[in-house]
Amino acid sequence: MENFYENTDFQLSKMNSRRNSSDILDHTVQSVRGRSHLCSTKTLKHVLAVFSLLLLCALVGLCAVGILYVSKSMSFEAISEDYSRAVQRLSVQEHNASETERKYEELKAEHRRVQDLLSHCSGCEICAQCGEGWTFFGVSCYYLSSDKLNWWESRDYCTGKGGNLVVITSKEEHDFLSSHIHETHWIGLNDLDTEGQWMWVNNQPLSETRTEFWLKRKNKPDEPDNWKSEDSSGENCGALGNEEGYTHTWFDASCKKLKKYICEK
Known about the structure:
Shape: elongated
Oligomer: single chain
Number of domains: 2
Structural class: alpha+beta
Number of strands: 8
Largest sheet: 8 strands, mixed
Helix content: 55-70%
CATH topology of the largest domain: Mannose-Binding Protein A, Chain A
CATH class of the largest domain: Alpha Beta
Number of helices: 5
């Protein structure tokens, strides 16, 4: 009998223990579910916050892109307008330049025609004014000597004839004179006052006329070379041609040499 009660108490105790364990398990599950619910809510809030921030950044970025696009569009339009105006101005300048060049060529052709007429004239008033032995070309009269003098004597002779040693200021004038001589002639060029500073007899610096026909050599010094082997004072006077027969370039020479000469008036 006692064993029966003991077994009964044991069974009740066991049942209570199971009931308590079941209650604890239910409580634990509910607690876990509550915590999971809380965690899910917090996570959702964080996700929403991040998503909102990203959305805000995207909107700001879109606004910035829109502003840049508008700015670029306005800048491109301004550049396009400036470019169009520049092209128009360039077109006008090119037209003016072409017109000026055309008129210049017409004037050159007319000048050559007049020179040809005057240079071939015989017995006309202009030719008569030059005097006997003088040749007219362009706007000047030229005298090509048959005798030889040093440079100073040549200058004085030309002055006595109402002119001076020739001053060459253009290729046309140079070509005309060189085509009429067959040996070296004095011209009105010197650097007697300052070595290397060549001056015409009318006191005009050679550098101002920008017309030079000095001989250029390969592997040797160009003219003027101021050679002093014949004259210790150097070569300080200019000549058209030299003793070797070159008559289309300039040479410096000793002013003491005797040469033919060209006068101009």
